[in-house]
Amino acid sequence: MLNRVLFSVFLLLSSTLAEAVTFRPGIEDARWDLKSSKFACRLSQPIPAFGMAVFEHLAGESVRFELQPLDRAHFKKGAELVAEASNWQAGMAPRPLGRIKRDGNGYLQVPNKQAEQMLAALYSGMSPTFNTGSWYQSKETLRVGMSGVKFQATYAEYMNCVAGLLPVNYDQVARTAILFPSAQWRLSDASKERLDKIILYVKNDDSVHSIYVDGHSDNMGRRLLNRDLSKKRAEAVTEYLKNHGVDEGMVITRFHGERYPVVKNNSKNNRTRNRRVTIRLQREQ
Asked: In the structure, what pLDDT confidence band is assigned to residue 285 with cuts at 50, 70 and 90?
């Protein structure tokens, strides 16, 4: 069955190549550019007269791919993604990688699984190619591909970047809730692990200038006791942050008792969600 599918794709590609407008870097102008940091690895290839092909691996996430055309009128109905053999790989069958949808910005967003398959294809010298309908309402189809020329050398640098990424990114730690058992304020091992990730991120991102720590309780018991309990919870988190190297001047500690429930205190599960300390990071814009 798989062989029949591959053969059908091969026939389809063969029949359309003569009538297709193709954009792909040539051997002379093919290049891969890498921007690397502890927060993201960005591997990109310019596609002359068309746009940019971009692999992006954010800290704490999986790699994803985006095809960014200069003219966003293309790909209104998406595109078929196929890994095609290069000219020197005669006889190698194309590999269908699935249909890709266009996002609201007019770009083709490729999810993690296919993005990884694209990287593997490029490493083996193949050309991931997007095939879509008519080229500007003409009888010609549109094909946009990447070149694997010089890819392997840059890929090694890219993998070194990936190995050095932080375990989390800003969006993953910017707002965090630490939950507590009823009438308790001591930090669990799981809570400490979550705080450790926040601490590691803050120590590596100089743009973070404030950390807001807010203690809360459910509505069980007396209001003044709940206020005191929320204070102890907030102070436990603040103390942990300071003891692990966070600048005390960055931390703003507040406590609110039962005043600001995240959900109504009308069930056991809801009360569990309200017994919390929230940690919010703020950084320079």
From this structure: confident
Q: What is the dihedral of CA 251, 252, 256, 260, to 10 degrees?
A: -90
Cα gap 29→128, rounded to integer Å? 17
Q: Which domains does the chain have, with CATH numbers?
A: 2-163 (2.60.40.2540), 170-283 (3.30.1330.60)
Alpha helices (H) along 164-222: 170-173, 189-204
Among 83, 21, 60, CA closest to 173: 60
What was the pLDDT predicted at 134? Answer: 78
Burial (0-12, 13-18, 19+ Cβ within 10 Å), 87 = exposed
Residues with Cβ < 8 Å from 253, sequence gap 6 or more?
213, 215, 234, 235, 238
pLDDT in tens, 219-275: 999 999 999 999 999 999 999 999 999 999 999 999 999 999 999 999 999 999 999
Beta strands in the chain, from DSSP E residues, in sequence order:
20-23, 33-36, 40-47, 51-58, 64-69, 79-84, 95-100, 108-110, 127-134, 141-145, 175-179, 208-215, 251-255, 276-283
What is the distance, to the nearest Å, from the Cα of residue 271 to the centroid of all Cα atoms in its chain?
32
- Cα(138)–Cα(229) distance, integer angstroms: 70
Apex CA 69: angle with CA 66 and CA 72, to 5°?
A: 110
Q: Identify the three-state secondary structure at position 238.
A: helix
Q: Mind listing the pLDDT tens digit for each residue in 190-203?
A: 999 999 999 999 99
